[in-house]
Amino acid sequence: MEGQFTKLNESFTCLNCGKFVEKDLNGSSRNHCNFCLCSLHLDITPGDRLSQCHGLMFPIDIISIGGKNIIFHKCSRCNIIKKNKALIDDNLMYFYEN
Ligand SMILES: [Zn+2]
Ligand SMILES: [Zn+2]
């Protein structure tokens, strides 16, 4: 397992809004809730699940680069900021409405 890049695409229950999040049907790795956009601090590098933090990560900004949306998540426990690609079914409006 060590040093291996694992692409995770799993369904999970969001710890922030409690909704069941289906895995991405297009095969991308889903690491955040598509309803409230929250994520969990589980990775040091994407997909490795090696972080000991496990804090809830909230969206702090969304930017658009070349037609792709990038969500910036900030960890509520250790304050690290990470970039994540938004998926096609992400409810980006949630971010603007809240
Ligand atoms: Zn959620
Ligand atoms: Zn953290």
Question: Can you give a write-up of this model?
Answer:
It is a single chain. With 98 residues, this protein is mainly beta. It has one domain. The chain has one helix spanning 93-97; strands spanning 12-13, 20-21, 39-40, 56-65, 68-75, 81-85. It has a four-stranded antiparallel sheet with strand order 3-4-5-6, with no helix packed on it. The protein has a two-stranded antiparallel ribbon with strand order 1-2. The structure holds zinc ion (ZN) (2 copies). One zinc ion binds at residues 41, 53, 55, 75, 77-78, 80.
Question: Could you give a quick summary of the protein structure above?
Answer:
By secondary structure, this protein is mostly beta strands.
What are the defining features of this structure?
single chain; mainly beta; two-stranded antiparallel ribbon; binds zinc ion
Present as ligands are: zinc ion
Distance linking N and C termini: 39 Å
Q: What is the CA-atom radius of gyration, in angstroms?
A: 13 Å
- The best one-word shape is globular
pLDDT < 50 stretches = none
Q: How confident is the prediction overall: mean pLDDT? A: 87
Secondary structure category: mainly beta
Outline the biggest β-sheet: 4 strands, antiparallel
Element layout with pairings:
Elements: E1 12-13, E2 20-21, E3 39-40, E4 56-65, E5 68-75, E6 81-85, H1 93-97
Antiparallel strand pairs: 1-2, 3-4, 4-5, 5-6
